[in-house]
Amino acid sequence: QWSPGRKEADADEFRPVLDIVEPARQRRLTVLLRLLLLIPHFVVLFVLHIAAFFTVIVGWFAALVLGRLPDSVFRFLTGVL
User: Fold this and answer.
1) Rounded to 5 degrees, what angle do the CA atoms 50, 52, 56 make?
2) pLDDT for 24
3) Distance CA 70, CA 81 (A)
4) Where do the structural domains in the chain lie, given as residue ranges?
């Protein structure tokens, strides 16, 4: 491929180098424990998203009446995101 400012000799000068470190070996028990810890995390996220859904509805009506989104609604929705 032709480019005006480069020569064929310069092609090797800018080759990227990628070093990949092999991950450490993990015990099956710790992997299982991490998977079990995901369950309460997903429960909390589910509850937060349900609360955010209703907060969006309340915030929409508040913005319709007040002309702006209340700060508390904005902060909560920003935190959920």
Assistant:
1) 120
2) 86
3) 17
4) 27-80
| Stronger pLDDT, 11 or 32, i.e. the higher one | 32
Residue with tokens 């710790």: 30
As separate numbers, helices (DSSP H) first and strands (DSSP E) second, the chain gives 2, 0
Could you tell me which residue, 4 or 18, shows the higher pLDDT?
A: 18
Q: Quick one: 38 exposed, middle or buried, by C-beta within 10 A (0-12, 13-18, 19+)?
A: exposed
Identify whether the C-beta of residue 58 lies closer than 8 Å to the C-beta of residue 77: no
Task: Read off the pTM.
Answer: 0.60
Residue 59's CB is within 10 A of a number of other CB atoms, namely: 19
Contact in structure between 77 and 59 (CB atoms under 8 Å): yes
Length of the chain: 81
